[in-house]
Design brief:
alpha/beta, single chain, 5-stranded parallel β-sheet
Amino acid sequence: MNVLICDDSGFARKQLARALPADWKVNLHYAANGLEGIEQVLMGHGDLIFLDLTMPEMDGYGVLETLKREGLRSKVFVVSGDIQPEAYQRVMGLGALDFIKKPAAPDTLLALLKQHGFWSASSGNQPSPAEPLPSGEIADAGVKITPEIRDVYQELANVSMGQAADLLARLLNAFVVLPIPNVNVLEVSELHMALSAAADSDTLSAVCQGFIGAGIAGEALILFHDSSFKDLAKLMNHQGTLDRTAELELLMDTANVLIGAFLRGYANQLDTPFSQGHPVVLGQHRPINELINTNKSRWRRTLAIEINYRIQDYAVQCDLLLLFTEDSIATMNNKIMHML
């Protein structure tokens, strides 16, 4: 049987391949996005597909829609960090066999393979070939981030982002549209460029919350587009006047959900619990330039993870930035090397 792992993260592909039964007698193939995945299926390499949802070129939903439209008979397990109830319902409606939460545990995969008839004790005795990650020299200290390391940071953020979106989706009873996280090492002078997407909004409101744990420290920053407050109040069933006090309450509620859930997911994957400080309001209804200039002393050279959350069918948009201190990068790089 030909098994295809379709995920834009090389780390996630390798992680999933290692979690499959070591004695499963199959031929493993790999694809880095949905278009590559469809090409592999057309080549006969996709009897069973392990499919990510958030990918460039064509996402997992597009793959499922294409398989259905073209009458392609591949069986699909969705493996995703986006664990919102609506994501589950959508992929099952498009014909997926089952939904697996990232990162996939070996016992979970084995149970599902047995349940759906893809594995039995007689299936084994031939190890599955693992996909090698591209080789590269990794700096053991400092702020050097190789493509391989960046890929792992992106995948860690992807899983954490999905957990935060799930909580927000349940709170608002809505679907959160998730992007591919951006990961960069930035000087403070470059932070303005990193937030250029947010500059489309005339004014923003911002909340910052510090965190620290076992040699890792930083700040989580929520930038909330002021045009979002009206729809957010509707989704949260806010009663009464939408004044600055009410907007601040909505802002803090959203920040607590997104920052808290993201940091928990990130800390769990690194096996490093974080202590969180009190959230601080950096400003309400202020231009992005003013927010950055007022607070630029807080951020120097930093590893920045940027995620833009949008609520489907509503004008609600906010940016979550994780800004890690320069000293934290070597610690996290070492942890990631152990994961690799």
